[in-house]
Amino acid sequence: MIKTPGNTHDSQILEPLVEQVIEKVGKPEAVAADAAYKTPAITSYLFNKEITPSLPLKKRDLMLHITLSSRQ
Predict the structure, then answer these.
(1) Helix (H) or strand (E) holding 63
(2) What is the distance of C-alpha 36 from the center of its chain?
(3) Tens of pLDDT along 11-34?
(4) What is the distance between the alpha carbons of residues 12 and 1, in angstroms, rounded to a whole number?
(5) By the number of CB atoms within 10 A of the CB, which of 26, 30, 46, 51 ranks highest?
(6) DSSP conformation letters of 4-52
(7) How far apart are the C-alpha atoms of 49 and 42, rounded to whole Å?
(8) Mean pLDDT, all residues of the chain
(9) Within 13 Å, how many C-alpha atoms sit on residue 33's CB side?
């Protein structure tokens, strides 16, 4: 468990929390989180650790995916 002040954004604690999990129980295959964690820094961190991020798509992401898929 990691305690932080109330004004600390959740996404700022993800890396130390994942490191704690790795140290105590081993590397997870995936990390699921809400949209607050969907940042380039967090997704890069998880990919570099070979952990699959399970983060929600935003509507614009979904629309871009649909647009790109329809071009194939």
Answers:
(1) helix 59-70
(2) 9
(3) 788 899 999 999 999 999 999 988
(4) 14
(5) 46
(6) --TTS-GGGGHHHHHHHHHHHH---SEEE--GGG--HHHHHHHHHTT-E
(7) 11
(8) 82
(9) 21
Q: What percent of the chain has pLDDT over 70?
A: 79
Go through the chain and tell me how many residues it has.
72
- Residue in this structure with the two tokens 């647009």, named with its chain if needed: 67
Q: What do you get for the CA distance between the two ends of the chain, in Å? A: 46
Backbone angles phi, psi at 8, to 5 degrees: -85, 125
